[in-house]
Amino acid sequence: MIELRQILKPKMVRPHLERALALLPDGSALAVRSGEQLIAGVGEGCEAMLPEGEGVMTFSLRIDDQEIGLFLLKNASTDEALGATLLDFAGNALQGLAQAEHTRKAVAGEALQSYREMALLQRAVQSFSQSLKPETVARILLQETSSRAARMEFGAVYLQDGERGGFRRLCVLGDHADALFDKLEELDLQRLLTTTPGILNDIAHHPKWPLKLDRVGALLLLPLVSNDEKLGALVLGGGTAEAFASSDLKRAETLTSVAGTAIRNAHLFAAQKTMFHSFVDVMSSAIDAASPFTGGHCLRVPQIVQLIAHAVEDVQEGPFRDVAFSEEGWEELQLAASLHDCGKVNTPSWLIDKSTKLETVMDRIELILSRLELLKRHLVLTAYEAWGGTRPPNQDAGAELAARLQALAEDADFLTSCNLGKIAMTEATVDRLHRLAGTEWSDVLGGPYRLIEERELEGLLIKRGTLTDKERTLIEDHVRHTIRMLSKIPFPAELKNVASYAGGHHERVDGKGYPLGVGGDGLPLQSRIIALADVFEALTAPDRPYRSPLSLSRALDILADMSRTGHIDPDLFRLFIRQGVYRIYAHLCLSSDQIDAVDENRYLSLAVN
Ligand SMILES: [Fe+2]
Ligand SMILES: [Fe+2]
298 CA distance to ligand 2 centroid (A)? Predict the structure, then answer.
């Protein structure tokens, strides 16, 4: 309703009245009233002048056909025509003034409203763009609406639940709001949004409202929409019957329109993230699938990494007391753990699983043993040909053949053990291998045939383990490939360390690891965690080609030794023991045969070299 006193101020009206009064004789009076209230008056008794007063003439002041006030004139002259003319003239002047002022205020009000809306939009866009998480967007939406709707007491944001259908409550605001929304959810909120969106004041007497809600006088319901896609809803409540005005609705609509876009962006971002993590999982599975022996390594290492990282965050004292990972830090660490061996896609699978010195695509010991068998038969045939019959000419000849065959059988055992890396490479062993490698024979079909080829001798002469230097370099190259591959992925700034964390999993704290030989403070905690997890998984894995799975205590013995000698971080190892990380993982992933008694105190008291 338009009120005259809000349009015309006394100082605007009074000059007009004074000019008109000057044309009237003494004793006349003029006034402008808005209902009971006097806006301005001049002349004798103007304050008490009322429309029904004697000799008082009135002029109705109107805007948009609505009477908003009266112009009153009391004429002390006997000239009635003068009074009527002045009433009409001054009244129309006041009417024009009121109309002009009303239009000016309306235009200014609209401009102010537009400015406020623009300011609200700008602030909302800034607030919502700070996060790509629906939960954060929902929280900001509730905070922004509550700061602008004075009588809002509680609110909730709902999102469409893609999996279960219907709405899922994402975020609430206000005292006891959860209990209230539990009750409200007895209704079909989706239906409610289509039948009664907007303001529902005085719900206790609202014809369409079907539910009694304690402490709730009014509701405001709005859908969250983006690109015509229904994403959820905003529900606000107030304790009084007339809690919400149309201005509250307008502001809430502005905020929900921006929030809808922000939530849609958050969904798109989450979908992209899920897709990326699926690729990572597929890649980890593919690396594991390349080897029947290390299957599951790339999936189990992240599990151990997660357990260690949680222990690092939980501990309240010691070197890790101040360590806390941000949400992005967790993601970075998990990605690095999942992809730490991705460079193995460039390593031949036979080399990853190489369990004997002569294994390549096949184990060449089988060829050597076949040749030994041929040699034995060649000796037998040669002997029988020399004897010219089926029996040895004398006992000595028979014994000599038997001794040579026995020696070859022993050579076969020796070569088999040597191939498995079970025989120490002493001078005598090396001499015997060279002697056997020099064994040659010919027969009627050709020759000479060699018992052991050059590259087979090279393999058998490996001093430790089953890898030649070249093969070891090839294996170690997987870390360089990991770094190279991950460096090509354009990770966002908050994940920029994935390549370096993953690429440090074969570094040692004493700086003697590979590929860079960084240690000490140059080796990030994340790489140390992955390194510890990597070794522990490898030691306890069920199907490594080199050995049967180790017991828990044996694996921890080896880890203790590695922490003592600068291979893995001793502080992390102590945490691994003290916080029981090894035990949790053992019960999750190891077979019951592997889990034996562990003397934690022995590991915790170990000195470091
Ligand atoms: Fe590795
Ligand atoms: Fe690994």
Answer: 7
